[in-house]
């Protein structure tokens, strides 16, 4: 009864609004969510407790970790720390079910969750951007979920414009980072500007309190960039995931008093270790200067434009090559019918012609695309997300498209589940129609060939321009991004290298080859990338 009275006096208001359930000698409380937005049109889910106090200090953190590392327990521990819960209180508050941490099969989600902890009991408001759990081999581009969610969050009503810390969650017992961990930590780092490295900290879970030497070595070998202390060592904090477990107070005939006391001590140590880690983490948050997401938005914008440019490039190059084929077939027909050309006599010939047609999207690859109705081009496919206002599409800048040939206004675009594809067919043509098409030319067949060559040269100029634009995006990323050796670049870089060589830009091609080489050396090859994502 005394414990119950203590709870009511200390956490009375919270308990009144929470759902309780017993767990041994600890009472667990499922906190009532003051705001729970699950709008599927959003790229993230919002869960808030309390109301934001604009006069109170605030912190924004990004939480990244593989499924099974204990992120859920970590989030709940943050709540209890902020509420001032002590071990002797024998209560535990949860925003999300800890059981999901123990059953990773049910904790998979492809959407970012934003937790807003605006608690009267805490001197600081806290926003946690919890990224999806990574641990399966589905091959989804889940890093894009983080990228798009951050971009959308920075534009949303919540207005998250800066990040105080990026927290990488790792099990303290790990001897090496898994391929998936390397990938996702690499991908997350590639989202930010170079100045974010001093805000990246390591959170080691399932810790026994000892220095996690093997895990730190694994982080070093994986070349994870993070904050360092005065001794140039990584900044990390330790947590044990047993702090919410009740002490065993049920005695039977085989009751071992010594074992019971040892178990109680272990649980107390677990509690103290985790809350000591929280003290260190919040002290770090109080001292570190937050980093603006402005550079991150630039990085994300360049990422989207680069992907869109390369995708659009392939379509244009394909059109150019088909046009070139059509030109050669026309030249051959003129050569084969040279006498008729000289005599200005009509004849027929056959060529393979190409055209752009609108088709339904393969929903295994994407759901929607942004296309230009004027240029008949796919401006943002794949990777076009939830945004309904086309002026906000990542490939738009100052209301104009950065990708399509004519850089058309966003109003000339449409977002739907359709894209443009190139179709070819055989077509009968005549010398008479050919002359009519180029009636402003004089000099017979030679002028016709010259005109067709001029058209081909214009297509080649467009190709060169697009390739250089894509290369410029990579160069900009190299300057502003923390990590440019990610899957995002690796999966496209070969295409760019090939096209740069075709347009006689060997130095630019060499620059990209060096990036590719560095990616191979630093990440011990890119086989793990291909294994999961380039199937």
TrEMBL record:
<dbReference type="InterPro" id="IPR006703">
    <property type="entry name" value="G_AIG1"/>
</dbReference>
<feature type="region of interest" description="Disordered">
    <location>
        <begin position="243"/>
        <end position="262"/>
    </location>
</feature>
<feature type="domain" description="AIG1-type G">
    <location>
        <begin position="59"/>
        <end position="245"/>
    </location>
</feature>
<feature type="coiled-coil region">
    <location>
        <begin position="296"/>
        <end position="344"/>
    </location>
</feature>
<dbReference type="InterPro" id="IPR025662">
    <property type="entry name" value="Sigma_54_int_dom_ATP-bd_1"/>
</dbReference>
<keyword id="KW-0175">Coiled coil</keyword>
<dbReference type="GO" id="GO:0005525">
    <property type="term" value="F:GTP binding"/>
</dbReference>
<protein>
    <recommendedName>
        <fullName>AIG1-type G domain-containing protein</fullName>
    </recommendedName>
</protein>
<keyword id="KW-0547">Nucleotide-binding</keyword>
<comment type="similarity">
    <text>Belongs to the TRAFAC class TrmE-Era-EngA-EngB-Septin-like GTPase superfamily. AIG1/Toc34/Toc159-like paraseptin GTPase family. IAN subfamily.</text>
</comment>
<dbReference type="InterPro" id="IPR027417">
    <property type="entry name" value="P-loop_NTPase"/>
</dbReference>
<feature type="compositionally biased region" description="Acidic residues">
    <location>
        <begin position="246"/>
        <end position="261"/>
    </location>
</feature>
<dbReference type="Pfam" id="PF04548">
    <property type="entry name" value="AIG1"/>
</dbReference>
<feature type="coiled-coil region">
    <location>
        <begin position="442"/>
        <end position="469"/>
    </location>
</feature>
């Amino acid at each position: 009864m005394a414990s119950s009275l203590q709870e009511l006096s200390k956490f009375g208001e919270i308990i009144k609004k929470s759902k309780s359930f017993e767990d041994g000698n600890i009472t667990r409380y499922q906190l009532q969510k003051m705001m729970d937005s699950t709008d599927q049109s959003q790229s993230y889910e919002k869960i808030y407790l309390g109301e934001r106090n604009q006069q109170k200090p605030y912190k924004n953190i990004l939480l990244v970790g593989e499924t099974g590392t204990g992120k859920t327990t970590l989030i709940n521990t943050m709540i209890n720390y902020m509420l001032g819960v002590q071990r002797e209180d024998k209560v535990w508050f949860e925003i999300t079910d800890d059981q999901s941490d123990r059953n990773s099969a049910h904790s998979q989600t492809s959407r970012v969750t934003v937790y807003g902890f605006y608690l009267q009991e805490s001197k600081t408001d806290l926003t946690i951007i919890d990224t999806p759990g990574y641990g399966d081999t589905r091959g989804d581009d889940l890093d894009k979920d983080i990228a798009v969610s951050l971009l959308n969050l920075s534009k949303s009503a919540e207005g998250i414009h800066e990040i105080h810390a990026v927290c990488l969650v790792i099990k303290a017992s790990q001897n090496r980072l898994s391929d998936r961990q390397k990938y996702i930590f690499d991908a997350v780092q590639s989202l930010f500007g170079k100045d974010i490295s001093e805000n990246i900290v390591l959170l080691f879970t399932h810790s026994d309190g000892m220095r996690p030497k093997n895990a730190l070595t694994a982080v070093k070998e994986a070349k994870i960039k993070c904050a360092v202390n005065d001794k140039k060592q990584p900044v990390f904090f330790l947590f044990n995931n047993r702090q919410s477990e009740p002490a065993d107070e049920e005695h039977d005939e085989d009751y071992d008093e010594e074992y019971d006391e040892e178990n109680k001590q272990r649980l107390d140590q677990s509690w103290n270790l985790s809350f000591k880690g929280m003290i260190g983490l919040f002290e770090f948050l109080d001292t570190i200067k937050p980093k603006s997401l402005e550079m991150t938005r630039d990085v994300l914008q360049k990422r989207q434009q680069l992907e869109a440019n390369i995708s659009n490039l392939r379509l244009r190059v394909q059109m150019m090559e088909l046009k070139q084929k059509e030109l050669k077939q026309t030249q051959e027909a003129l050569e084969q019918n040279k006498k008729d050309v000289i005599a200005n006599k009509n004849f027929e010939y056959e060529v393979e012609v190409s055209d752009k047609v609108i088709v339904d999207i393969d929903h295994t690859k994407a759901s929607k695309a942004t296309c230009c109705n004027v240029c008949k081009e796919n401006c943002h496919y794949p990777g076009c997300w939830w945004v309904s206002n086309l002026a906000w599409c990542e490939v738009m800048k100052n209301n104009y498209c950065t990708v399509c040939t004519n850089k058309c206004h966003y109003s000339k675009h449409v977002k739907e589940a359709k894209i443009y594809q190139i179709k070819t067919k055989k077509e009968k043509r005549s010398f008479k129609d050919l002359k009519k098409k180029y009636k402003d030319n004089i000099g017979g067949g030679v002028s016709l060939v010259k005109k067709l060559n001029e058209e081909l040269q214009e297509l080649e100029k467009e190709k060169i321009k697009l390739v250089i634009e894509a290369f410029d995006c990579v160069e900009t990323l190299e300057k502003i991004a923390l990590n440019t050796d990610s899957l995002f670049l690796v999966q496209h870089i070969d295409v760019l290298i090939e096209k740069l060589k075709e347009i006689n830009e060997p130095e630019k091609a060499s620059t990209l080859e060096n990036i590719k080489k560095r990616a191979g050396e630093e990440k011990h090859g890119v086989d793990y990338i291909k294994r999961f994502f380039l199937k």
